[in-house]
Amino acid sequence: MTNRERAMAVLRYQSYDRLPVVHFGFWGETLQKWAAEGHLSADEAKKWGDGNPMDAVISGKLGFDFNWYSAFHSASLLRPGFEHRILKEFPDGTRHELDGNGVVVVTRPGARSIPAEIEHTLKDRASWEKEYKPRLQWSEDRVLSGMVRVNDRMLRFDQGGLEFLRKGERDYAYGLHCGSLYGNIRNLLGVEGSCYLQVDDEALFDEIIATVGDLCYRNAKYALESGAKFDFGHFWEDICFKNGPLIAPSTFEEKVGPQYRRITELLKQYGIDIVSLDCDGVIDALIPTWFANGVNTMFPIEVGTWDASIGPWREQFGRGLRGVGGMNKTVFARDRAAIQAEVERLKPLVALGGYIPCPDHRIAPDAKWELVQYYAELMRETFA
User: Fold this and answer.
1) Final residue of a structural domain among 102, 120, 138
2) Rounded to two decimals, what is the model's pTM?
3) 231 and 321 together in one domain
4) CATH code for position 290
5) Cross-strand bridge partners of residue 309
6) What is the largest CA-CA distance in the chain?
């Protein structure tokens, strides 16, 4: 079987010869450290990207079959984005910068975390109509300009990528990224701004959600109508943190749920029955909305400090809910015994079916190259 066949067989509860060994990418600092240690070249570390040719090279060196986050992305963000500008610079090197979303963020030398947000351009209907709505209109080029991995090259959708996708000849699972139906909106408004807007101008809040949802739908529809073949649909959100969602579950169900259903029903029309969604944090309160509206595969199931696992979700939602993720990546900084214990912990979860273990987020800089290799080797031996 190919890795593509294995992955889809697992998620469809079909027979397979062995479990595919997958990952979810790396921090840039991780690759830089591994290059400094001699495991990678500087060029390999620099050119890596999710699902691109260099990703395949690094995956092979570590012993992984492929990166689950391998998908075709159309442009569902602001187009064009805001021009980056440095607004203020302080003696210690701290800066106030305007980013591509029109958000003023604080950056500091050497800082690697998500920057603090201190101002948002999107505040009301006037700023929406002037600065954002025009940047969220659909055009064919949003799809045609997307890049496709064609073996060892990246080609535009309209310059060789489509022909490759129509053939469907690949040995790894490749998805259609269907955008973000709320996460990007949260990025534009900020958590506080999005909460206030729901009350201060509910009609505008609804219009923003509808505009973003329609853009994502039309991108997906155009890609599917082209004859391109995909193995699964995929969404990105990141709208939860360690204590739960960044939006009231009832509001999410009412206003965003229908946007998911519209796209997942479209995917079904083209034979795509696996739809995964990337959301960090404690996602439990939002799973009912996703599951009821056609999203059936949770990813990356962050173990975190809250011990997320597909086990309790399977008890609640049954075999219809699949998963990719849920492997505690922190063991990569420890030793072989920790790796062995983690793989043992995963055994009963794999036995449930419809589940592919995957390091629960990007592999962090404290990971030891040899231990990541050992994990991939042990997974292949254990789940042969």
Assistant:
1) 120
2) 0.96
3) yes
4) 3.20.20.210
5) none
6) 62
Domain of 376 in residue numbering reads as 3-79+121-382
Residues 233 and 149 in one domain: yes
Q: How many domains does the chain have?
A: 2
SS (H, E, C) the chain: CCHHHHHHHHHCCCCCCCCCCEECCECHHHHHHHHHCCCCCHHHHHHCCCCCHHHHHHHHHHCCCEECCCEEECCCCCCCCCCCEEEEECCCCCEEEECCCCEEEEECCCCCCCCEEEEECCCCHHHHHHHHHHHHCCCCHHHHCCEEEECCEEEEHHHHHHHHHHHCCCCCCCEEECCCCCHHHHHHHHHHHHHHHHHHCHHHHHHHHHHHHHHHHHHHHHHHHCCCCCCEEEEECCCEECCEECCCHHHHHHHHHHHHHHHHHHHHHCCCCCEEEECCCCCCCCHHHHHHCCCCEEECCCCCCCCCCHHHHHHHHHHHCEEEEEECHHHHHCCHHHHHHHHHHHHHHHCCCCEEEEECCCECCCCCHHHHHHHHHHHHHHCC
Structure tokens, 324: 């990719």
Tens of pLDDT along the chain (384 residues) come to 999 999 999 999 999 999 999 999 999 999 999 999 999 999 999 999 999 999 999 999 999 999 999 999 999 999 999 999 999 999 999 999 999 999 999 999 988 778 999 999 999 999 999 999 999 999 999 999 999 999 889 999 999 999 999 999 999 999 999 999 999 999 999 999 999 999 999 999 999 999 999 999 999 999 999 999 999 999 999 999 999 999 999 999 999 999 999 999 999 999 999 999 999 999 999 999 999 999 999 999 999 999 999 999 999 999 999 999 999 999 999 999 999 999 999 999 999 999 999 999 899 999 999 999 999 999 999 998
